[in-house]
């Protein structure tokens, strides 16, 4: 009897994760846009899963910061506010600058960094926004792994999906996809030559520049929305 109960729980958890994986992919690929309302009934029908399984999957994604639950309104895909962007870029700056500093001293850094940067270059040439975001995140995760700092990596993992969403928004407003390469060049060069101080500095500068650009972009949209809402009331 106990074995059947445990087996049932394992299967249910596996379905939760599988459903979360599908919905997460739809969000990070842009198929489900920020602010999109999500209903348990529709997702249950589309994925052929119970509402309780969908609810558990959405709760998992809520813990990752990808969806939000609004009282009486249900679920929706999370949107980045200007404050969200500020929190994420300052947090990224702290984690990734330390990771870059430590990774620069790793004797095995060259091959993983070169491979990840080449993949980002190929993604930029493809002009595929999802591929660019995936490669961008993979590059920064490679640096985090090369830092050899387990607790840093664990903390980065907690916000990884939010960072992915942030990167997608940040890269989408670049004038040209190729700019994602030049934005990383100084940091990559410093890492490859093993300059820890410069790696830390350029990682911090990279996050600050892209972060402030995204914040200004979001603030402009927020101002327009506020003005539109105000004009409707008048």
Written account of the structure:
The chain is mainly alpha-helical. The protein contains ten helices and three strands. Mean pLDDT is 90; it is low at 1-10. The protein folds into two domains: 2-77, Arc Repressor Mutant, subunit A; 82-223, Four Helix Bundle (Hemerythrin (Met), subunit A), CATH 1.20.120.530. The chain has a three-stranded antiparallel sheet. 76% of the residues lie in helices and 4% in strands. This is DNA-binding GntR family transcriptional regulator. One of its GO terms (molecular function) is DNA binding. It comes from Bradyrhizobium yuanmingense. InterPro entries: GntR_C, TF_FadR/GntR_C, Tscrpt_reg_HTH_GntR, WH-like_DNA-bd_sf, WH_DNA-bd_sf. Keywords: DNA-binding, Transcription, Transcription regulation.
Topology diagram in text:
Elements: H1 2-28, E1 37-38, H2 40-47, H3 51-63, E2 67-70, E3 74-77, H4 82-103, H5 110-126, H6 129-146, H7 150-158, H8 160-172, H9 179-192, H10 196-233
Antiparallel strand pairs: 1-3, 2-3
Helix pairs in contact: 1-3, 2-3, 4-6, 4-10, 5-6, 5-9, 6-8, 9-10
Task: Tag the structure with descriptive keywords.
234 residues, mainly alpha, Arc Repressor Mutant, subunit A, Four Helix Bundle (Hemerythrin (Met), subunit A), 2 domains, 10 helices, 3 strands, DNA binding, GntR_C, WH-like_DNA-bd_sf, WH_DNA-bd_sf
């Amino acid at each position: 009897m106990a074995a059947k109960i445990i087996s049932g729980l394992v299967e249910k958890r596996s379905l939760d994760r599988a459903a979360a994986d599908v919905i997460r992919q739809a969000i990070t690929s842009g198929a489900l846009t920020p602010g999109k309302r999500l209903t348990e009934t529709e997702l249950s029908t589309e994925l052929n899963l119970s509402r309780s399984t969908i609810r558990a999957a959405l709760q998992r994604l809520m813990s990752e910061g990808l969806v939000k639950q609004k009282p009486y309104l249900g679920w929706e895909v999370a949107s980045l506010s200007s404050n969200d962007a500020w929190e994420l870029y300052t947090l990224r700056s702290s984690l990734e600058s330390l990771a870059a500093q430590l990774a620069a001293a790793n004797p095995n850094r060259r091959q993983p960094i070169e491979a990840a940067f080449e993949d980002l270059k190929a993604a930029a040439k493809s002009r595929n926004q999802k591929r660019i975001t995936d490669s961008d995140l993979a590059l920064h995760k490679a640096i985090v792994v090369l830092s050899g700092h387990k607790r840093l990596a664990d903390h980065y993992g907690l916000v990884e999906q939010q960072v992915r969403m942030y990167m997608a928004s940040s890269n989408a407003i670049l004038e040209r996809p190729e700019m994602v390469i030049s934005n990383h060049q100084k940091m990559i060069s410093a890492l490859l030559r093993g300059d820890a101080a410069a790696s830390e500095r350029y990682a911090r500068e990279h996050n600050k520049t892209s972060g402030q650009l995204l914040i200004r972009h979001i603030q402009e949209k927020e101002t327009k929305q506020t003005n539109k809402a105000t004009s409707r009331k008048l």
